[in-house]
Amino acid sequence: MNVSTESSILSESPRVDILLLRRAGAAWTEAQRARLPDGIRDSSAAHILIEFKYTESVTEDGILQAAAYDLFYRQVQRLSRRQTLPVVLSAKTPQKSRLTKWGYEESQRGVFHTELPFVGRVMLLALNRLPAEPNNAIVKLFASLKQERDAGFTSLDKDVFAESTELHAYVLGLSQTLKVKGELNMAEVLTPEKVMEYGMRIRELIFETGTPEERLAGLGVRERLAGLSPEEILECLSPNQILAGLNYDERLALLRLLQEEMEAGAENGADSNENT
Q: Strands, DSSP E only, in the chain?
């Protein structure tokens, strides 16, 4: 029998493959809540640890692993239990029998909690179950069911695209990639950079081949006129259109200005005739 007082459980340090959201302020702002999915947006925790299960089904080991990540992270960062929230984000809908076995109940559509010891802190989000609302749209793009992905694309807040060209390009690239492949294989070398590059090219094609109406769609009046001088704008308007936007006093002021211009022109003409 060999007895060792120092044993390495793992051959190397584990690589924690999670998404970490860290809030800067005391609470999520309304703008942040508008972009966060259900369950997470209502949490008071400042550190959200998200483990994403795309091709894999949620397993008991997966939930335990999320709980372990949370424990190790709190120990390293010296945080309390209230300051963190471990989340398992599942593209596939977990089997009801498994959810029952683990004690998970749906507190709101797509959001599951359990009271079982050790894993009671781990929230489970099922993307196929989340409502197709703007705040859930981004995560629903990765749902396993096509109709749910389509619902995610449809529910995307168009203001998001105006705020971020990169996000617009990524969503376009992701949409087209999923249409071709049906389901992304995470084992393939399909990096976010490649998806972004694909989306940027799609944006360029839209602007290159789109009609003027399509290019200007979604822009406000000021955005459409940006870059044009007042003179260039007036050239596109008829006299009646110009006068239609003026009130009575403004029309009188314009007439006086025109009269002064005409009188000044007449005087200049008379002076030139005398000189000749």
A: 19-22, 47-53, 84-90, 105-108, 111-113, 123-126
What digits encode the pLDDT tens for the residues 107-155? 999 999 999 888 999 999 999 999 999 999 888 988 989 899 889 888 8
SS3 229: coil
Residue 98 lies in a domain: yes
Q: Specify whether 132 is located in the same domain as 49.
A: yes
CA 167, 52, 36 angle in degrees (round to 5)?
50
Using DSSP's 3-state secondary structure scheme, residue 125 falls into: strand
- Render pLDDT for 51-104 as a digit per residue (tens, 0 to 9): 998 888 999 999 999 999 999 999 999 999 999 999 999 999 999 999 999 999
Strands lying side by side in the sheet with 123-126: 19-22, 47-53, 84-90, 123-126, 111-113, 105-108
Mark which of 176, 192, 218 sits at the end of a domain: 218
| Phi-psi region at 39: left, alpha or beta (left = phi > 0; alpha = psi -120 to 50) | left
Token readout for 156 is 């995307």
Joined together, the tokens standing for residue 48 give: 């959200």
